[in-house]
Amino acid sequence: MERVRALELKKYHEIVMRIPLFEVDLGQAVYHGSYFHLFEIARDSFFRSLDFPYSQLMREGYHLTIAQLACAYFHPLRYDQLIQIRTSVKELKNRTLTMIQQIWYESTIYTQAEFIMVCVDFQGKVSLIPEKLRQVLSEWMAHS
Fold first, then answer.
1. pLDDT tens per residue, range 63-118
2. Pairwise CA distance, residues 138 & 133, whole Å
3. Is residue 1 part of a domain?
4. Are 105 and 82 in contact (CB under 8 A)?
5. Does 111 reside within a domain?
6. What is the structure's pLDDT at 1?
7. How far is CA 7 from the centre of its chain?
8. pTM value > 0.90
9. 130 φ/ψ angles, rounded to the nearest 5 degrees
10. Domain at 45, CATH number
């Protein structure tokens, strides 16, 4: 298996949060599946920062479903660490959005994930990403 390298993100949205106790397993580290809770919180914050909260996408009858993801764990996260989660857009197409998210602690990258998301309506049909969302994402990407 090829070793995953951390990507340098030229532009990103960042949130800071502390690792809560409920995300830690008996091994005293964040359970691998719980990292996706942290990424979800950061993606929600990213959409809010665009003045397009995810709830708006849902009100329009759509959501972004994860079609593919890859995650690399470089170091374990521990309870009470004050982390930074960076969210960036790698690629925007008509129906898909690819995002890179990274978790940093004390100037070191701990985790990196790439999410390919597909826009679907509430009946499960693949749909175009709504124009307003594509517009704000395109503008955000252009101002790097």
1. 999 999 999 999 999 999 999 999 999 999 999 999 999 999 999 999 999 999 99
2. 8
3. no
4. yes
5. yes
6. 53
7. 14
8. yes
9. -55, 140
10. 3.10.129.10
The residues that bridge with 82 in the sheet, in sequence order, are 18
Residue 39: which pLDDT band, with cuts at 50, 70 and 90? very high
Q: For residue 30, give its domain range.
A: 13-139
* pLDDT at residue number 143: 86
Query: Could you tell me which residues come within 8 angstroms of residue 17 by beta carbon, excluding any fewer than 6 positions away?
Result: 38, 41, 82, 83, 85
The pLDDT tens digits for 8-27 are 999 999 999 999 999 898 88
Torsion of CA 10, 106, 100, 61, to 10 degrees: -110
Residue 4 lies in a domain: no
Termini Cα distance of the chain: 33
Those residues whose C-beta lies under 8 Å from the C-beta of residue 68, and which sit 6 or more positions away, are 115, 116
Which pairing describes strands 82-92 and 13-18: parallel, antiparallel, or unpaired? antiparallel
Domain-embedded: residue 7: no
If one counts the domains in the chain, the total is 1
